[in-house]
Amino acid sequence: MRYQSVIDTNNKNNSHTLTIDFIAELSKGQPFEILDVGCSAGYLGEYLRTQGHHVTGIDITPEAVIKASEFLNEAHCMKVEEFFDLYPYRQFDVVIFGDVLEHVTNAEEVLRLTSLALKPAGKVIASIPNVGHLAVRAMLLEGRWEYSDLGLLDRDHVRFFTKDTIYQLFNNAHYDVKAIESTNLPVETVSEMCSMQLNPKFVELARSAAGDDPSTTAFQYIAMAQPKFQGPRIVCLLPGMDTGLFGFRIQIPLENWAKSSEGSVRFRLLGKHTADDLLWGDVFVFQRMGGAYTLHMIKVLKDHGKRVVFEIDDLLTELPDFLDHHRGSPETEQSLRDAIAMADIVTTTTPRLAARLSALNSKIVCVPNCIKDLPPERVAHTPDILPRATLIVASSDTVLVDCLIAPLRHIQQQYGDQIKLVVVGPIDRALQAGGLSFERTPILSYPDFLSLLQTLINPIGLIPLDDSVFSSCKSAIKYFDYSVAHIPSICSNVPPYSDYVKHDSAGLLVDNNTTAWVSAIESLIHSPQERMRLSTNARQFVIDTHLADRAGQAWQTVIEQLDIKQVRMPGLVEASVKQFKPNINKKWIVQKLLQRRTYSRIKTILREEGFAGLTKRLARW
């Protein structure tokens, strides 16, 4: 314990007194939670405790901690990083670094960790020696740099600071310095105190060179700093991150937003998030999924001042009959509606979907489906290369493709091996049952799907859709995907495609009958020039209207409407980490097993995702 001191609040040329004055100004008589890092024997903390504050001390010297424990509310022998790891939920009004930061190599990182342990208005107060003092300048003029047992050139110092670099240190750690004071000592006092044995000739040379620079007498600087209000921090609590839906609805737009707004974003599986995620985040995004646990988390977050966004890209509150196998229990369906209603803002894909959901929540922002990157220009193939056309039909979900079966059967009978059919996703079952032959591809990740499109020879995108309220609320994402890949599209003449596709200019719109589909497909099979014209126009349309910047800008609108206040409350963690037990009992399980819908759902999952998919869903549940 080389550094000991007696507190004399009448001496204003003292770092302890200046620290005490800062705290008195901040607290205004209210008791504070104070963390004293490098507390030594507890002399400063003891005084603060007499003022009504709760003082926690940290030091790496065992004998110091033993002594400090007699005077402080608590004392710990460990590094500050270890303390934050051991007590991640502790929050303080003030964290003191009394001649500490010059002893650590990672001062910026220590300050960043400290910001997580500060209450919303919390401050850091740090005393730091000034290496620009005249005594050090004189020693350097002599050609010396000699360490001592204490003082400005303490042999344990690993960093050295001036007033300017103290500002730089805090700025690099994302703090604003709110005030800075100094203690001042003449060069003779410093030379004697630190055993520097300065040559008077070089002292005068240094004084002459420094002129009226006030920093030459500053022995220490005492800075009070507060974390900057950084760009908003978004945590996405997701049901999965291995699907295209995650890519183009969550990852691509939010990474674009973060890049342009200086915000930050984390992606976590719901239930696999950490306490740090909950304290760190300002906004929490849930995607598509209801359930008791989702509702529990939304309520806890909102109760503790966090903002909640619910992202939904389909009209899942009004499922059509052909998607009956996707229905959950009445309780699950109601929980989805409740989650939408509880959210501060709901994000959707299209105005049509927003209008249908507005009865549950009036605060809705449309975040359009957009394309992250433009693939390279497609290599043109000559008409005599086989296949003459590759027809691709793709969907990550079950959609009605009945209108395509007869037209495709006709095309295959008419053209045989000249035409190739590629089918992606669960719609393959209906097409197989219709007697069609095709190349089957399972559901792909979004990047893999875009890569597949680049491999197709003479491609034509087929996008069938039924004329229902549910389907009209979808996004035209497949049209966007085909367009940027320089693939012409033939779409059902129903919303949403009729909202986006300009017929015979950037694609073809057809009625859902055999004659219309066959005519449109054959027109493109026979005319490579038409394929190029339509795909070129479509690609330019998407470039002009649906690149990722648009989705990023929409998320900025979401953030602006949320009126975010950064809060860090340990009660949030305590409430959320309590074991969550849904109301499941033997009677509930038996009732579930007796429902035909349960078996239908299991069969569908096994058919679409296999046993591994069923296992994953059960583990998530």
Q: CATH top level of the largest domain?
A: Alpha Beta
Percent in strands: 15-25%
CATH homologous superfamily label of the largest domain: Vaccinia Virus protein VP39
Please, what is the average pLDDT? 87
Indicate the radius of gyration in whole angstroms. Answer: 33 Å
Determine the CATH topology of the largest domain: Rossmann fold
Structure notes:
This protein is an alpha/beta fold. The protein has four domains: 15-227, Rossmann fold; 233-370 and 554-582, Rossmann fold, CATH 3.40.50; 389-546, Rossmann fold; 584-621, no CATH class. Helices cover 43% and strands 18% of the residues. It contains 26 helices and 19 strands. The chain has a seven-stranded mixed beta sheet with strand order 3-2-1-4-5-7-6, with helices on both faces. A six-stranded parallel beta sheet has the order 9-8-10-11-12-13, with helices on both faces. Strand 2 (54-59), helix 3 (62-68) and strand 3 form a beta-alpha-beta unit. It is elongated, with a radius of gyration of 33 Å.
Topology (elements, then pairings):
Elements: H1 15-27, E1 33-37, H2 43-50, E2 54-59, H3 62-68, E3 74-77, H4 80-86, E4 92-98, H5 107-116, E5 118-129, H6 134-141, H7 163-172, E6 175-184, H8 187-193, H9 200-210, E7 218-227, E8 233-238, H10 244-261, E9 264-269, H11 275-280, E10 283-287, H12 292-303, E11 307-311, H13 330-342, E12 345-348, H14 351-357, E13 364-366, E14 389-394, H15 402-415, E15 419-424, H16 428-433, E16 439-441, H17 446-455, E17 459-463, H18 469-472, H19 477-484, E18 489-492, H20 497-500, E19 508-510, H21 514-525, H22 528-545, H23 548-562, H24 570-577, H25 586-593, H26 596-620
Parallel strand pairs: 1-2, 1-4, 2-3, 4-5, 8-9, 8-10, 10-11, 11-12, 12-13, 14-15, 14-17, 15-16, 17-18, 18-19
Antiparallel strand pairs: 5-7, 6-7
Helix pairs in contact: 6-9, 10-23, 12-13, 15-21, 19-22
